[in-house]
Amino acid sequence: MSNARKLADNLPSEGSLSGRNLLTNGAMQIWQRGTSFSTNSAYNADRWNVDNNSGGGGQSTDAPDGFTYSLKIDPSSGNAALRQAIELPAAGEGGVFRSGQKFTLSFYVKSANAGEAINIFAASATSVGATTTAQVSAQTIGTTTTSWVRHIFTFTSNNVGGSDTCYNIVPFVVSPSGATYWTGLMLEEGSQASPFEHEPVGVTLSKCQRYFQHHQGDYYTIFLNGTKDDSHAYLSGSLSQVMRAKPSFSTANCYLYGRPSAVVSYTSTDNRCSTSYATIGFTSVTGSIDAGEGVRFESNNSTGYVRYDAEL
Known about the structure:
312 residues; 6-stranded antiparallel beta sheet; mainly beta; disordered N terminus; 7-stranded antiparallel beta sheet
């Protein structure tokens, strides 16, 4: 068989040839939160929530040909599950996930031990961990091996629930006795799996930043040109991407700095962010600020950051 014939046989039979992957960061390229994890019910690689990684996991360079990274999951006990919540157009609106539409999920997985059941579960819901409206009851589609294997599963969608805002895809290995590794996850319309759709890392990052943004200080200013009014201070800056909803924010190893030379203390923060602009208010501010000067928000060591979270 010619190479052209082989390529034609692997192309999708319906839909466009680009932008087919409904999942984001399927190649595990983006890791804004870090690269090592040992917690439960937490995002690891961007857009991928892991049920349990208490045995220790995160970014791995063990990957099949054509990929750089995989997500290592070691739950110690229980299932090795990863979840992605695909945003719906609006509550109760399925969009592409209309009733009767076929979808094909494909992914690469390997395990420290062979013969462990690989299951798929899907549900539309109101958050990444919810199961409001079952779409695919948990079913076994194969078993693990100690080398990389691509698995393919086709299913038919049902109507989403009236309050559902996302469509959750949940592949998992049942109670593995060691680590599992995942990459190349792709969900596309139709009943045929096409080759994994690689995209530039900058494109993937911009998609991830709709839901989560990490701004590292590295001893530098995170916000400039803040103002102080009586006992309150306000600092603002544009977000890297417009976010899905008003984000919550968190900080670590940062401080308010009254120009030119004074550290300014505060008791609490106030979230005044919008989907496109980050505004943090600081309350009960005390400290000396020279006349005509403002305040800025700085990292006080290489680990200082501000994070904005609008995950489903």
